[in-house]
Amino acid sequence: MDILEGALPDYLIVIADIVFAIVFLYAVITAPWYKIKDNESSHVFFGLTIFTIVIWLVRSSVVNGIHFHLLMTTTLYLMFEWQFALFAVILVHIGVYVLDEIPLHLIPANVLLLAGVPILFTHYLLLFARRRLPPNFFVFVFVNCFFAAGASMLLIGLITIGMYFFFANSLVFQQLQNFLPFTLMMSFPESVMNCIIMIGMILYRLCWFAT
To answer: Could you give the C-alpha distances from 53 to 16, 62, 128, in angstroms and in order?
Structure first.
């Protein structure tokens, strides 16, 4: 669900660039770099990042040029925490850009939308689960992963619709009348994909999880 080129005003893209620069700098400063110093951890990080690039390239443009694809951001956050999840999504965008799939100047705005929203939602849902729900395997998988992934996808769709409603011209917004139904359709596959990977990782390599 990448942002359409030319759909949003230039000043909004500039604001997104500034916010992205601040968040990225803060992530670089606060990231626990020691967690990926050993070969195994770095291989897991870059391997999952490459896998995510492949997932993003399996996309559909059914609504006037908007690309629908799975995100995997929830899994990235649960495995590596928010800083490395952000770095992974940035690398994914660079990889997709190299393959000429997205414009370079929209990468910061897309990162804020496709990484920031799932990371924030998953983070606060994880905090809620730790305080209010019993600490067991099923809560982690079905609440913090399955529900978080699907709800994040839907939330991104709602935010995207809101941005186009308030900032895009009426013609662009009218062309997106089928956007929300496809977002709803993508929510369940997003939940299932993240949940399958999460269960496999927990069963075989629980030590890889930062959360």
So the answer is: 23, 20, 30
DSSP string, 50-113: HHHHHHHHS-EEEETTEEE----HHHHHHHHHHHHHHHHHHHHHHHHHHTT-S-GGGHHHHHII
Tell me if 182 is assigned to some domain: yes
What total of structural domains would you count in the chain?
1
User: Does the pLDDT of residue 178 top 80, yes or no?
Assistant: no
Q: What is the pLDDT of residue 5?
A: 83
What is the CB neighbour count within 10 angstroms for residue 73? Answer: 30
**Parent domain of 14:** 10-208
Greater confidence (37 vs 71) lies with 71
| Backbone torsions φ then ψ of 192, nearest 5 degrees | -65, -45
Query: For position 12, what pLDDT does the model report?
Result: 95
Residue 176 lies in a domain: yes
pTM of the model: 0.93
Question: Residues 116-127: what's their mean pLDDT?
Answer: 97
Q: What does the block give as tokens for 126?
A: 């994880």
